Automatic annotation (TrEMBL):
<protein>
    <recommendedName>
        <fullName>Solute-binding protein family 3/N-terminal domain-containing protein</fullName>
    </recommendedName>
</protein>
<feature type="domain" description="Solute-binding protein family 3/N-terminal">
    <location>
        <begin position="43"/>
        <end position="252"/>
    </location>
</feature>
<dbReference type="Pfam" id="PF00497">
    <property type="entry name" value="SBP_bac_3"/>
</dbReference>
<dbReference type="InterPro" id="IPR001638">
    <property type="entry name" value="Solute-binding_3/MltF_N"/>
</dbReference>
Length: 258
């Protein structure tokens, strides 16, 4: 009888030991699972990002990658279509990305770091004869824009009557080359990129009026952890202080923020 009781006691002690060990392991693993790495996004629009294998990865890609390394992140940046980036940043509380700060986006995201500025300009074929020198002259023209991008928002705010949204800059350039749009609205940094595309090989481009200046921010969802955001803000300050920020922007012919 005593041996049976002893065996039961031994089994109970062994079960308690396994339970304590499981609790210890769970306690050690909990911080790992509860602090999942922030997912980083950038839209697949040159010169802000380029596909893997290119000599350069893009100005916003490089800024996010460097910021990530400085907060102990792996540095992985996901290049995705702009509409997907906007949706993921809005719905995923543990994601960050670089997007334009626009009035119609203001209440949808949390805005953490002003990364850079650019301007939205009109571009047309030099031989088309259309007048894009002023906004008034261009308002009745057919304007190609990037669907969901800052140019689409800008032409709408500036009273343009005929816009033609598309999902890629390449499609916009093809439409311009074929005469299906009179001009396209793009960020200033994209003008050189547009001029170097295959569909631009047989046409000269001219740059016209500036619609507006746009700020590009590191942004997240409305519920992004404010304590985590502070780490990224401190990392950006360190990039400014040691000159890395100015160096990255200079590689893409942008001026750093003052």
């Amino acid at each position: 009888m005593d041996s049976i009781i002893n065996r039961k006691d031994d089994a109970l002690r062994a079960w308690k030991c396994r339970l304590r060990a499981s609790a210890l392991i769970a306690g050690l693993l909990f911080p790992i699972f509860s602090q999942a790495e922030t997912t980083l996004y950038v839209g697949n629009v040159a010169p802000f990002s380029y596909p893997a294998g290119q000599a350069q990865r893009g100005v916003l890609y490089d800024l996010l990658h460097e910021l990530a390394l400085r907060v102990g992140h792996s540095g992985t940046v996901n290049v995705v279509p702009l509409k997907r980036e906007l949706e993921m940043l809005r719905t995923d509380n543990n994601s960050l990305g670089a997007i334009s700060r626009l009035a119609d986006r203001e209440q949808l995201y949390s805005w953490h770091i002003k990364l850079m500025q650019d301007r939205i300009v009109l571009v047309s074929r030099a031989d088309s004869g259309v007048d894009i020198s002023t906004l008034d002259a261009a308002r009745k023209l057919r304007i190609g824009v990037l669907f969901g991008g800052p140019s689409e928002s800008a032409v709408r705010r500036n009273g343009f009557e005929h816009t033609d949204p598309t999902t890629s800059t390449e499609s916009n350039v093809r439409k311009l080359a074929a005469g299906r749009v009179d001009a396209i609205a793009v960020l200033g940094g994209m003008v050189t990129v547009v001029g170097n595309m295959p569909d631009s090989a047989h046409m000269s481009l001219k740059e016209g009026a500036v619609l507006e200046t746009v700020d590009l921010y590191l942004a997240g969802s409305k519920n992004f952890n404010p304590e985590e955001a502070k780490k990224w803000e401190m990392a950006f300050k360190s990039m400014q202080k040691d000159g890395t920020y100015a160096r990255i922007l200079g590689q893409y012919h942008y001026l750093p923020l003052k």
